[in-house]
Write a structure and sequence with these properties.
The complex is a heterodimer of chains A (139) and B (388). Chain A is mainly beta. Chain A has one helix and nine strands. Chain A has one domain: OB fold (Dihydrolipoamide Acetyltransferase, E2P). In chain A, a hairpin with a 5-residue loop joins strand 8 and strand 9. The radius of gyration of chain A is 16 Å and the shape is globular. In chain B, a hairpin with a 1-residue loop joins strand 5 and strand 6.
Chain lengths: 139, 388
Amino acid sequence: MKDPFIGCKRPLPLMKGLAKEFYDWCRQGELRFQRCKQCGSFRHVPREICADCSSFDWEWVRSSGAGTVYTWTVVERALHPAFLQAVPYAPVVVEMAEGVRLVSRIIDCPPEDLRIGMPVRVEFEAVSEDISLPCFRRT
Amino acid sequence: MTATGQACIVGIGETAYCRKPGSGLSQMALQLKAALAAIADAGLKASQIDGIMPFPNLGKAEALAANLGCADLRFAATINMGGAAPVASLRMAAMAVTSGAADYVLVPGGWNGYSGERVRETSAGDDDSIPGAQIARDYYMPYGYTAPPQWYALMARRHMHEFGTTAEQLGAVALAMRGHAQLNPAAMMCGKPMTMADYLASPMISDPYRLLDCCLETDGAAAFVVTSAERARDLAQRPVKVLGAAAGQPYPADEITNRREFHRIGLTSAAAEAFRQAGVTPGDADFAEIYDCFTFEVIQQIEEAGFCARGEGGAFVENGGISLGGRLPVNTHGGLLSHAHSLGLGHVVEAVRQLRGVAGARQVKDAEIGVVTGWGDFGDGSIAILGR
């Protein structure tokens, strides 16, 4: 199927602070999440300290890359100018094996094929010279 | 909140609402018009207002006070909860007038939501627009997940999956609001009835939300005035008592997807607190004005406020359950969906009208206890239990 985001000037992350660290790993083809070094819990989006144990000690731990579709919406009327030509497209929430969830999209998957619980695996798409975004494919 | 019933709403005001060609007034002028109407309704002079709680991003207390001639402003605050702000402000205003921090607090809000900046296009691109804006920019917007109907559609979709909530149940909410609007000459959709076939045929915006699941975009303003029960006795109207009021946030409030309890929202804890304060139960409410930015949010708030169990909201709203004459009349004025997008202030105004017994053709008979809620940003919540 045709990728709805071809030719679409997607808004990109600002690449500052912890977001930059997250996306720099993506640029290297690795999906990593913060894991607390004290209590071991994963978290996303990146935060300064662990909400479970308040520890400042954490590390970027590579995700298995495997997840399932948790929920989604199919946007048929774009509400941001960058996506006027992209409709219909489907922002998807993926629940990772590590337990964290992230907003992403499933490539090569028409919206009508989306199912909650569908297993997916991470890939990366280069959207600029410096930025790659995680996306997913059905497994 | 302090002692129940010690704070009252004593004045309400609204402008007319419109779409094309627009109000022709500035955002500030609209709010001043509604504010003056509310102050006059209370039997007060503008100079007596000594507390102002502006809606987030729509005006500064200093400018409102300067225009109104409030020479002794001693309490000013804005609660950053989007559409949950007016009812959260009602709660804080009640705290202010019972503590003595202020005597008469004005809560205004208004905008050119049709002819000015359209909210559907003010996606979270501005770091200050909402508390979660930076997270949205870095982690949501690259995927085209940019605006309120899309944010909440994810919640609705998951609810439909877990509990079997249907499109027709979302439609039942839209139909109930539209039905009430037929009884309210001030509603934008008065004279424009809707059928389930109309609802199902309306174009998809962000699945499962169709056009007719989405609130209106309108120009207009509303306001109310809060004072203590003691001061209320000397004013023009029969006071409406604040029996309980609370606000709450989902966790985390600035990010939608990583909630361990996905359907828990700010209202979940706030409603329990407010009903406890008031010493009543959800079943005691004669009506509820529930912030209806989209249809599913009504179902979700009905559940989380405790009117029914989580997962049973779809069945609750069917078969006239939330229409006048049903088990819980909801949004008797037509709500954001069919009255106007009054930022949630219109819900407070309508609750006061119902409890004064002046709601005309849409009056809930012998209404004694009413509930009003607010919903904002990524699921912030507020609630007040009002009594006559």
